[in-house]
Amino acid sequence: MRKEPLVRLIDDDPTVLAAQSTFLRMADLKVLTYSSASEFLEKDDFSHPGCLVLDVRMPSMTGLELQDEMIRQKIDLPIIFLSAHGDIAMAVRAVQKGAKTFLVKPPNLEQLLEEIDSAIKLCFSIRDEKLLAQELQEEWNQLTEAEKKIAKLVAKGLSNQTIAEIQSVSEKTVRSQRASVYTKLEVENAAELTNFLRDYERLCSESVSYTHLRAHETS
């Protein structure tokens, strides 16, 4: 079962934190509040799914600096930025680096709820794809180097005879390795193998990142 999502509110203004947390809890959301970016980094359990509602201008470490640190640490929690002082350049920079959205303070509360709901769904999508990438990688790693080469040639639609000529082996060897590939990857035919390799290359050859999934989400 999935964990209940957690909304982290990060703002150096205790009045803002109190007002936002009260509103979100009334909307049946689980909320944690932090008065600084450093407190969030020190105390939060990043593995717990959810999102951040993050103020931009804070002492010591700004929201944008926290975003950079989260990228460095590979913390995949989606960010909703709030700022009373934000400008277009700041918003563009934040979104280009993967922020879910950028709202002006005080935000429309219904819009904030919608953005939080969207960010939480994105978080689950990120983690589902990371889990799938891990599973595909583990299955692929079961293959020998020879089987990996056979798998890629089969996925290209080549016949056993052609593959045998390319690999300088007998057709019997190709048939045996092909059967082993199907068993280890739990596929039944070349079409399913092609789909496996497509998913594997998409998810494993490139790291599954927040920015990558946002681009996929909006394409």
Describe the structure.
- The protein is elongated.
- The chain contains ten helices and five strands, in the order E-H-E-H-E-H-E-H-E-H-H-H-H-H-H.
- It is 59% helix and 11% strand.
- It has a five-stranded parallel beta sheet, sandwiched between helices.
- The two termini are 30 Å apart.
- With 219 residues, the protein is an alpha/beta fold.
- The longest helix has 32 residues, at 109-140.
List keywords for this structure.
219 residues; alpha/beta; five-stranded parallel β-sheet; 10 helices; 59% helix
Overall morphology: elongated
Largest sheet: 5 strands, parallel
How many helices? 10
Cα separation of the termini: 30 Å
> What is the beta-strand fraction?
5-15%
Indicate the radius of gyration in whole angstroms. Answer: 23 Å
Helix/strand/pairing class, anyone?
Answer: alpha/beta
N to C succession of SSEs: EHEHEHEHEHHHHHH
Average predicted confidence as pLDDT: 89
Number of strands: 5
Helical content stands at 55-70%
What spatial order of strands do you see in the largest sheet?
2-1-3-4-5
State the low-pLDDT regions, or none: none
Helix/strand layout:
Layout: E1 6-10, H1 14-26, E2 30-34, H2 37-43, E3 50-55, H3 63-73, E4 79-83, H4 88-96, E5 101-104, H5 109-140, H6 145-155, H7 160-167, H8 171-185, H9 190-203, H10 210-218
Give a short overview:
The protein is of the alpha/beta class.
